[in-house]
Amino acid sequence: MKSLIKFTLNDEPVEHLVDNHITLLQMIREDFDLTGAKEGCGAGECGACTIIMDGKAVNACLVLGVEADGCEITTIEGLAQGSELHPLQVSFIENAALQCGYCTPGMIMTAKVLLDENPHPTVDEIKEGISGNLCRCTGYKKIIEAIQFVADNN
Amino acid sequence: MKFVGKSVKRVDGIKKVTGSLKYVDDMKLSRMLYASVKRSPHPHAKILSINVEKALALKGVKDIITGEHYKKRGGLYLEDKNFLAVGKARYRGEAIAAIVATSQEVADKARKLIDVEYEVLPAVTNAVKAMEPGSPLVHPDLGEYYWVPVFMPKPGTNISNHYTLRKGNAPEAFEQADYVVENKFYVPHVQHVPIEPHTAIAQMDVDGVCTVWASCQSPYAVRQALSEAFDIPLNKLRVLSPAVGGGFGSKAGTTLEGIIIPLAMRNPGRPIKLTYTREDEFENAYVRQGLHATIKTGVNKDGKVIAVQNEFIWDGGAYNEYGVNIAKAAGYASAGPYDIDNVWTDSYCVYTNHPVGGPYRGFGMCEIHFGIEQNLDMIAKQLGITPVEIRRINGMKPGGTTGTGEVVPVAGLQECLEQVSFDIKLNEKTEVKEEHLARGKGIACGWKAPSMPNNAASSAIIKLNEDGSAHLLVSAQDIGQGSDTVMTQIAAEVLSISPEKITIKTGDTDHTPYEWQTVASRITYSAGRAVYEAAKDAMDQLLELSQIKLGVYKRDLELRDGYVVSKIYPDKKVAIADLALGLNFEDGSAVHGPIIGRGSFIPPNIRNADKKTGLGDHPVAFWTYGVQGVEVEVNTETGKVRVVKVASCFDVGKVMNPQLLEGQIEGAIVQGMGTALFEELMLKDGKVLNPSFVDYKIPTSDDMPEMIIKFVENPEETGPFGARGVAEPAMVPSAPAIANAIYDAVGIRLNTMPLTAEKVLNAIKAKKQND
């Protein structure tokens, strides 16, 4: 079974015939070749697949593709304006807040929503805000500093 | 220096923050097929029959193979494994059959249609019992297997390697010691948990060329293993590792690649992809081996340790092709970073019907130091001296002697010890108001050498471009540690051009030169030295041409900011861009041709130790020493331990990139903390009970402690700019430092990891009853 859905993907309106049983993550990766969001566990536990859906950070592996109907979806690929990086992306590089990079797209999307909702978070609020995104490389310190850096310049 | 020692930003940063870096699972190739693996539900069972008819009949299924199709055994140090089980399954989850189909969905569906008939065999689930006579054997045919001669398997038993170290006369020294302390420790299996699960694609072309795209740390080692297993010549087998989403050792060997290659060979022209699920990752990728350790220490009243005797029994799981080297590495490091005259060690790698043990960050070292460092604190307590004092007395100093009898010229351990004691304020107790919270501080030392063959080699090529930019080719793999950036910095420094002018290319056995493996904290040291040599070679060619061009002796020339410049007359110079393709003369003729720098490196003069005694004067490339200090807060009502602060100091020889190096240490501290406090692969009757993030927790941002990171720099003579490795050593002292801090806080000793709230609370209760 397939459904025709309409939604906004990285600021562009799209119409898409989607298999009813596939996840939003599968849809954006397989159907749209947007592979920035990763599948780390497929169970909503690691956050590597985090995208933004109507302003909320969402684990795309827990949502069905058809649920995108009528929504505004932003993936990591939609964050930079052309070659101009988003301040969070710049800050992650400047603060060495990434290593293997597999959690990075999800981490940045979570951080974006965190700062959209709370432009001046405390360190504890940042820690709590990204606690659903697992990183095995960095020990989190530089990620928190990178987010703090953007908040300080907000 | 201009670039080395500076926090140059990651060269792979933009690709990673924009999500545009393609990892293997992101790749979609035309006409791609998808694989699924049928796995054994039993930890130990004879395979009586495999019926694939129903599965083959399913629409979309292209092919199914079993172990019977490719029976050749393989393995890095001991050839004991098949990629698909032959005859019997030796762990729960072992691959029995592999299906390839037009979609993942169909492949997974077909998997369920395969019927396998088993005869269940008694499972070996305890490594200590597995060594007892009469235990069922996991590999009854061990005697027929090939192994690298430095290892010592015992055919007819479950022992895949028995390493021995006999330095001095330990039995006699114990007789003379004022005190003898003996303790047992247990470290359970844990998993590496890279956020990217294992994944690979294989394609066999009709002309016999096989291409493998794998998330792997070591493309050349994978190529070698696959070439041997499937009889494909090395020039017809290309392994690419485009990106690796975390390894920590789990992607060091060859795992799922060996399952899809036979499928690719039978289905030419079709790329075949296999990606592990998180559950696979916990059960069917490598795990860190469990360790049963007994450590006996003899010490004199003055605090001098005069003898140690160790027994390490490693639960290596079903296949020990890599694990045998873990037992060996732990054996030759078994004295710890201490100068002890009498050492007696037996380190056994033992087959069980558990998941396959493999290399995990600092393999062997994290595990043995959990015991060594707690034992030392217990001795200090008995002698009435501080943990720092006993480490000052016994800790390695320059000119000291290791457990294998090697005299070490460089050892920054004592400087690290003083730095950490100062940074963690070891002598000051933090007061907390809440009665149910207790604070404590602890320290632990650690050391590690690269656990690799003596001849583990590296190479690099630098191609100069006609605009003065360059390409750097290496097969060192950036698995997150930042090697692409550091290799670029080294080349930039020698060539005196900015890192932006250098593009690094890695991970393609057809196009990037040989690298043994990205493991063992050896890349900055070994691949870095090869890059250094390649850049020097290019420099030498540039200077040769310049002395003709400028009429200045080579010895008076140097590279400076993209030019070859006379050291005496700085206005005499030529741009390296003008020499990139050779030297042109006024009459239109030219000589030399393109500048290509070549660098090769093997750590010099590493020799085998004596097989019986383990003694050797230079058995490893170098030792890395360091110390961690930890402050914990223990909730005496719940037993929950919070790591408040960690101070770390390592002797890295040379800080190549401060920011990236800090990141390595911070990651190691938090990873070490996870294994110390809550990580454990729960095994029951050979079954992994917690193969998911719901039941196997790794640290989150909430768990992160305050971290103080320091370094000392005693140069490594053979390393580039004096650098030595540190990525793994940084994790080694974490767990024992936490255990020692818990003792300081609430006076309890826990000899088994992890130090869970439940164990801590029970120990606190037991202590209260005894008090």
What does this structure look like?
The complex is a heterodimer of chains A (154) and B (771). Chain A is of the alpha+beta class. Chain A is built from five helices and five strands, in the order E-E-H-E-E-E-H-H-H-H. Chain A has two domains: 2-78, Ubiquitin-like (UB roll) (Roll), CATH 3.10.20; 87-152, [2Fe-2S]-binding domain (DNA polymerase, domain 1, Orthogonal Bundle), CATH 1.10.150. Chain A is globular. With 771 residues, chain B is α+β, with helices and mostly antiparallel strands. Chain B has three domains: 31-121, Aldehyde oxidase/xanthine dehydrogenase, a/b hammerhead (Aldehyde Oxidoreductase, domain 3, Alpha-Beta Complex); 290-452 and 608-770, Aldehyde oxidase/xanthine dehydrogenase, molybdopterin binding domain (Aldehyde Oxidoreductase, domain 4); 458-601, Aldehyde oxidase/xanthine dehydrogenase, molybdopterin binding domain (Aldehyde Oxidoreductase, domain 4, 2-Layer Sandwich). Chain B has a seven-stranded mixed β-sheet with strand order 3-5-1-12-9-10-11. A five-stranded mixed β-sheet of chain B has the order 7-15-14-13-8, sandwiched between helices. At the A-B interface, helix 2, helix 3, helix 4 and helix 5 of A face helix 1 and helix 16 of B.
